[in-house]
Amino acid sequence: DWKEAVKWFRKAAEQNNPRGQTNLGQMYSKGNGVEKDHKEAIMWFRKAAKQNYPDAQHELSAMYWNDEGVQKNVVQAYLWVSLAGKVI
After folding, report:
1. Contacts of 79 by beta carbon, 8 Å cutoff, 6+ apart
2. pTM of the prediction?
3. How do residues 3-38 score in pLDDT, each as one tens digit?
4. What is the per-residue pLDDT for 85?
5. What CA–CA distance (Å, rounded) separates 88 from 83?
6. Cα separations (Å) of 50 from 1, 5, 24, 43, 67?
7. How many other CB atoms are found less than 10 A from the CB of residue 31?
């Protein structure tokens, strides 16, 4: 149940839990349980990425690389993927 998942991810995200923030960002990015909203996804990814959460850094990098919710920026994409230690 996507809506139930969103409810619990939001509770975790609002308590500054980076995994909850990343999961909630993914829900917004894909439109699972919520209306697709790349700007909202980026907001949650950024909160978790600033806490050095690699999955969020990778997601944020992909958003910059794919021009989703932000203007394509390969420098930002490279920055975040480098911090994450993953390959796009």
Report:
1. 61
2. 0.91
3. 999 999 999 999 999 999 999 999 999 999 999 999
4. 84
5. 12
6. 29, 23, 15, 11, 20
7. 13
To the nearest 10 degrees (0 to 180), the angle between helices 54-66 and 18-30 is 30
Determine contact, residues 59/22, Cβ cutoff 8 Å.
yes
Concatenating the DSSP letter of every residue in 22-70 gives HHHHHHHHHTSSS---HHHHHHHHHHHHTTT-HHHHHHHHHHHHHTSSS
Break the chain down into helix, strand, coil percent, rounded to 5.
70, 0, 30
Q: How far is CA 43 from CA 1, 23, 24, 71, in A?
A: 23, 12, 10, 14
> Which one, of 38, 25, 85, 33, lies nearest residue 66 by Cα?
38
Tens-digit pLDDT profile for residues 50-81: 999 999 999 999 999 999 999 999 999 999 99
